Amino acid sequence: MTTTARPVVLVLDDEKNICKAIELALGQEGMDVVTALDVSSALRTLHGRIVDAVIVDIRLGEIDGLSFFKRMQADGITAPAIFISGNATLTEAAQAVKIGGYDFLEKPFSSEKLITTVRRCLDMSKLRTQLALIESQSSSGEIVGQSGAIRKLVVDIARVAKSNANVLITGESGVGKELVANSIHAHSERAEQAFVKVNCSAIPDSLIESELFGHERGAFTGATASKKGLFEVAHRGVIFLDEIADLSVSAQAKILRVLQNGEIQKIGSETVTKVDVRVVSGTHKDLKKEVTEQRFREDLFYRLNVVPMRVPALRERIEDLPELIAVLMRQLSKKNNLKEKPIDEEVVAELQRYAWPGNVRELQNVLERMSVMSGERITVLDVPEEILSATDGVEERHDSSALRTFRDRSERDFIIATLKRNKGNISQSASDLGVRRTYLHKRLSVLKIGKKEYFL
Ligand SMILES: Nc1ncnc2c1ncn2[C@@H]1O[C@H](COP(=O)(O)OP(=O)(O)OP(=O)(O)O)[C@@H](O)[C@H]1O
User: Fold this and answer.
1) Which one of 16, 20, 267, 339 is most buried, counting C-beta atoms within 10 A?
2) What is the mean pLDDT of the chain?
3) Which residues carry this modification: 4-aspartylphosphate (predicted)?
4) How many CB atoms lie within 10 A of CB 244?
């Protein structure tokens, strides 16, 4: 698949001479011009290839230009339209702009006027795509971390981004695969074009093909309007197919076709459309194993896996945790409109001993919970119990074990003394210690404090 930088403009006018004149003027400006003398051939073009702008005569034989534009909109074609006419009424011109037309040109117009209008229209359309892109990317950010694994990943991303090769990103769930895909797009020559993310496992089998490739009106019950597929939306940009292992066998076959010929076919359509899309896919499964067990097509696997990239689990780069915590806390307090709270070092040490099966996403959730539920600062008492109990007994990695032993012993003595003073009353002791009852119970069991030690 190749990237075509030349913008494509469709001209629909029943006067051959006008079509020719426009074709000549815009062709000299480096644009690809396709002409159509009637509505049906214009629609065929629009359904067969992706067009950046259309120039439409208001007075056409069969239907008027305005109805044609409405038909385009109903068919999900979003190219902007410039209307032209020699004898349109003022009302028609106003109507053209009202229904979303970009501009109106009165015939005869000079080629300079035409070129300026089309250029502006194309710039506006590009700007619109960029704005949509910024919006879709506003939640994504930089890849945080200084560990060897992350530094290597960042170098690999920069290298692979410059090529047009398909990339398969593997790694556990929540590890940052989407972030990597985003970063490949942002550093590629397609950065100003669309980045479309599809979670293949979230879309039911029955809908996936229509989501990816679109459908024509009436293609199936409920298809009341024609719909653009995500591959078409991603034209000239990047599509990120997340959880690719979950694709149905028939969707796998269709994706293979896009990768082989750059062709898509809407459900219910006779014609094929050429698209230019770079495919980045992601999975937390072992895709090679899925191939061996015949759940995934081998030919598709090789097409997707041109450049494999593995994102390491958080526990494999646990030295990145303090920096990640700092960055995520800043993001979270902004999101929740909260003052950024300081975190005790002991908390960070506790979090570093945890295995993080849900990786950075789990870390985000835990930090959010702690920052919402804590007081002025985040202390070890705010660390969720499931993390404390999972880390108890785990060999210390960042704390000397002598310090840990001392801490446990002091904590043990302090708890026993409080319980003795309260004659074994758990509620009162928890309140004196400033912790929840459940937490005190857990510490009693972790520190192996039996009743005989505090009942006099
Ligand atoms: N190295 C990192 N630096 C900063 N943020 C990160 C990093 N890794 C992951 N994140 C953040 O963690 C969250 C989860 O990451 P992401 O959605 O990319 O994971 P994923 O591997 O695609 O998950 P899944 O397999 O569940 O789709 C995101 O909000 C992402 O921004």
Assistant:
1) 267
2) 87
3) 57
4) 27
Nearest to 399 by CA among 348, 323, 342, 439: 348
Q: With contact defined as beta carbons under 8 Å apart, do 175 and 313 qualify?
A: yes
1 Cβ below 6 A of ligand 1: no
Q: Is 318 in the pocket of ligand 1 (CB under 6 A)?
A: no
CA dihedral 217, 218, 219, 223 (to 10 degrees): 70
Give yes or no for residue 175 CB within 6 A of ligand 1: yes
Name the one residue in this structure whose structure tokens are 């994706």.
Answer: 255
List helix spans (H) across 282-425: 287-292, 298-304, 321-335, 345-352, 359-373, 385-391, 401-421
Residue 162: count other Cβ atoms within 10 Å of its Cβ.
Answer: 11
CA-nearest residue, atom 9 of ligand 1: 176
Provide the pLDDT confidence category of residue 397 given band limits of 50, 70 and 90.
very low
Structure tokens at 391: 């880390």
In this structure, the number of other CB atoms found within 10 A of the CB of residue 251 comes to: 20
Q: Is 74 helix (H, G, I), strand (E, B) or coil?
A: helix
Q: Is 321 in the pocket of ligand 1 (CB under 6 A)?
A: no
Ligand 1 near 154 CB (within 6 A): no
CA 92/CA 95 separation, integer angstroms: 5
Kindly indicate the confidence band of residue 138, based on its pLDDT and cuts at 50, 70 and 90: very low
Tokens of 166: 């398909």
ipTM: 0.96
Contacts of 418 (CB under 8 A, 6+ apart): 429, 432, 433
Report the separation in Å between the CA atom of 263 and the middle of ligand 1, taken as the mean of its atom positions: 31
Residue located via tokens 């069991």: 445
For the CA of 180, the nearest atom of ligand 1: 18
Whether this model's pTM surpasses 0.90: no
Tell how far the Cα of 178 is from the centroid of ligand 1, in angstroms: 6
Tens of pLDDT along 328-359?
A: 998 888 888 888 889 988 899 889 989 999 99
Residues 341/374, Cβ–Cβ less than 8 Å: yes
| 74-122 pLDDT per residue, tens | 877 888 999 998 877 778 888 888 888 899 898 889 999 999 999 999 9
Ligand 1 centre from 277 Cα, in Å?
23
Tokens of 61: 């034989």
